[in-house]
Amino acid sequence: MIDTMIGVDLAKNVFQLHGASLTGEVKFRKKLSRPQFRKFMTERPACIVVFEACGGAHYWAHEVQELGHQAKLIAPQYVKPFVKRQKNDAADAEAIVIAAQRPEMRFVEPKSNEQIARGVLFRARDRLVRQRTEQINALRSVLYEQGQIFPKGAYQMKKVAEFLQQTDNGLLPLVREECEELLASISDLTARINAKTLKLKMLSRQSEISRRLQTIPGVGPLTAMAIEAFAPPMDIFRCGRNFAAWLGLVPKQHSTGGKARLGKVSKEGQVDIRRLLIIGAMTRIAWMGRKSIQDGSWLDRMLNRKPRMLVAIALANKMARSIWAVLTKEEDYRDPATIVTA
Description:
Blueprint: E1 4-9, E2 14-21, E3 26-33, H1 34-43, E4 48-52, H2 57-66, E5 70-74, H3 76-79, H4 89-100, H5 113-145, H6 157-165, H7 173-205, H8 208-213, H9 221-230, H10 240-247, E6 251-253, E7 262-265, H11 271-287, H12 298-305, H13 308-329
Parallel strand pairs: 1-4, 4-5
Antiparallel strand pairs: 1-2, 2-3, 6-7
Helix pairs in contact: 5-7, 5-9, 6-7, 7-9, 9-11, 10-13, 11-13
């Protein structure tokens, strides 16, 4: 029978442990190195081990589970209120246990190794996109100082290349050389981004979950892979609205005295999925055009009376609820407008 809970404050080399009974009595406090921690957990009887959801937490959650323990991850912002006075490793480990013993506490689901691997690939592509954007902005700024203005976007680099090839473009040799180096760097980053995008799309074709998600309008291969990589199991959410709230797609509340005050979207959830859902919603609204939207539908009525960006956020919220329904019911998406009721 499990009667001990251990809070672990992770670090690079030294871990701080705080052991307590399930009723809160302190049993031990220890500071161990990485090898000592592994040996200590191997010799311990089965217990609950709680980590903050930080770097390395998912790895150690898997390690202690293989040793027969129960692992839990808790968000750092939920631990902070329980730190007493001075902040140090011992106080943090104690706060982890105190927070984890609250009956209403919410925990982070440990990610599988497959999820972590796909997350690494997804974030690597995002990192390359940011680097390319930085290089494009640098190139445009150099040309702007020379009186040459080019539009934003990676697809505009063809115009820049054509301009640099002109012999009478008026650029000094040093400026031309720098621009050509930046253009070569942008071309290399574009090729690497395309390769990772292709790899993500291939992975999405191999997954039944990804295929099912892509039946939802506005959800493409990248969005489906982001959901697979970063979203927890859908059965931990009671309803689709809870999943949308976890993504940060609901209004932020500042209510008191029985008066409900709702503000802007909270943005307190998973950034990657939320961003891609909003992009997918904007695609349905802006790029596909109003002609593809059924007259009299919810989306048509919203666009007639609300700003387009606000409608995109609301549509992303509905898409999140559809994702929850599709994954929990294990069915393909069915458009409500096409469902015939008996």
